[in-house]
Amino acid sequence: MTLRYQVLTGALAVLLSTAALAQSAAPATATAGDTVAPTKAQLRAEMRADRAANHALAKQVRDALYKNKDLNDTDIAVFANKRTGKIILAGTILDESQDQIAQDAASKVAGVQSVQTKLTLYAAP
Q1: What pTM did the predictor assign?
Q2: Which residues make Cβ contacts (< 8 Å) with residue 93, sequence separation at least 6?
Q3: Can you give the pLDDT at residue 39?
Q4: CB atoms within 10 A of CB 97
């Protein structure tokens, strides 16, 4: 009985070890819940799309500023982040009231969440 017991125990050990090896050697397949890292091409395409969206939002804000007659003779650059809706206005204005006018005009554009100004008052030499 001891020889028989040893043979059965050995056979069981071999079977269990091969089953464990078969499971660990199997390739991992992605399921629907798994996240897959994007490729470089996908990241570049996403960055290009973000940049294009930022430029489009900045253009909409610039158009709104240029249509406002109270902002004639100003030099305002617009920086936009489409994902956050944050707008930064930078440049020169002729009087302090134009700062608030520019903020109001920019905040009325669709997609704008916040407006930050870095406008400086033009000082004539």
Answers
A1: 0.68
A2: 71, 74, 76, 99, 102, 119, 120, 121, 122
A3: 93
A4: 10
In a domain, 35, yes or no: no
| 111 part of a folded domain | yes
Residue 96: closest CA among 116, 123, 62, 77: 123
Residue 112 lies in a domain: yes
For residue 77, give the DSSP letter.
Answer: E
Residue 89: exposure state from Cβ atoms within 10 A (0-12, 13-18, ≥19): buried
Q: Tell me: the pLDDT tens digits for 47-88? A: 999 999 999 999 999 999 999 999 988 899 999 999 999 999
Residue 72 in any domain: the answer is yes
Which CATH number do you get for residue 78?
3.30.1340.30
Give the tens place of pLDDT for each residue, 26-38. Answer: 455 555 566 778 8
Task: Name the residue range of residue 107's domain.
Answer: 41-125
Containing H/E element for 93?
A: strand 86-93
